[in-house]
Design a protein that fits this description.
Elements (H helix, E strand, L loop, with lengths): L17 H5 L3 E4 L1 H4 L14 E4 L7 H13 L3 E7 L6 H15 L3 E5 L13 H6 L8 E6 L14 H16 L3 E9 L2 H13 L6 E6 L4 H10 L6 H8 L12 H13 L5 E7 L4 H12 L2
Parallel strand pairs: 1-2, 1-8, 2-3, 3-4, 4-5, 5-6, 6-7, 7-8
Helix pairs in contact: 3-4, 8-9
């Protein structure tokens, strides 16, 4: 299989400021989707951070095998640690010890997780942080929601989400681990820019890794967006769905990324540090799109 060629050294941005904006991108996979990729080295630059989503019901052994495989192929595995699917502190410490010992994992995304009702003792990422299980980790990421989260703030406000981020900001100031906020995907730049500026105004300066849905069929994106509670930017997809000339064409993230890249170039202190891709239309499809937009 021919390898796609990537350049890591400094180079003039192609596609406006987008090339520079995509530098240091990450990708999200699940064990079952990762298993469909013959060799990650053929589609992404080695050293790329690859999140491994832990969906309820996925055995820890499958998560570990995926982490080991990614490590062996030269990537940086970052497993999700969803609080609400963990039974107790003993299971948490066992998972973390196995990740570290078997796959060399030193980075993790800590989050509440999909289930609304915890199966055990943990309900949120703050409890995971306080457990001490991740002491010594090089990097800890937490979740962000630019368009709100009805599971956390049922009234449509962002009161609880903001209080949690303020707590995590204070933790970031006393930990040796690098931290970042990785967000749910959005489809429009304006609410993202407003949310990032709001965090800055609130004194939250944890770097943000903005979630972006990779190229996919419009119907696929609509399904995931509704299931994941995407907010006002869902209108971008719904408007496109009403245009029969575009209905069958793949949706790509060009517009939102160009807008965010331009804003970052004009405002270097803007809080977005990296782009995190959700490959809803397939890992290889997403990786190919990135390669086409980062070639020199």
């Amino acid at each position: 299989m021919a390898l796609l060629q990537f350049r890591r050294e400094a180079q003039p941005p192609k596609n406006g400021d987008l090339t520079a904006f995509l530098d240091g991108f990450s990708m999200e996979v699940m064990p079952r989707t990762a298993s469909k990729v013959e060799d990650f080295r053929a589609i992404m630059p080695q050293g790329t951070r690859v999140y491994i989503a832990h969906i309820e019901g996925t055995p820890i052994e499958e998560m570990l095998e995926t982490a080991k495989r990614l490590r062996n192929e030269g990537f940086e595995p970052m497993p999700h640690i969803p609080a609400r699917i963990i039974r107790d502190a003993a299971e948490l410490h066992d998972w973390v010890a196995r990740y570290k010992g078997e796959a060399g994992v030193t980075q993790a995304l800590l989050l509440g997780g999909g289930p609304r009702t915890p199966v055990g003792d943990f309900d949120n990422s703050m409890q995971l942080i306080e457990s001490g299980a991740f002491d010594g980790f090089a990097r800890l990421h937490v979740a962000g929601h630019p368009e709100g989260n009805r599971d956390i703030d049922a009234d449509g406000s962002d009161k609880n989400v903001m209080e949690a981020l303020q707590w995590k900001q204070k933790f970031s100031e006393r930990t040796d681990a690098d931290m970042a906020i990785v967000t749910q995907f959005c489809f429009e730049a304006k609410p993202v820019i407003e949310w990032v500026n709001r965090l800055t105004a609130e004194g939250i300066d944890i770097p943000i890794h903005i979630g972006i849905a990779g190229p996919a069929k419009l119907q696929t994106l609509l399904k995931f967006a509704i299931a994941c509670g995407v907010g006002p930017s869902l209108n971008v997809l719904q408007k496109r769905a009403r245009d029969v000339t575009k209905l069958l064409l793949p949706f790509t993230p060009d517009e939102i990324l160009h807008d965010l890249a331009a804003h970052k170039a004009a405002n270097p202190s803007f809080g977005i540090e990296a782009v995190h891709f959700f490959p809803l239309g397939g890992i290889t499809t997403n990786a190919t799109w990135i390669a086409e937009h980062t070639k020199g």
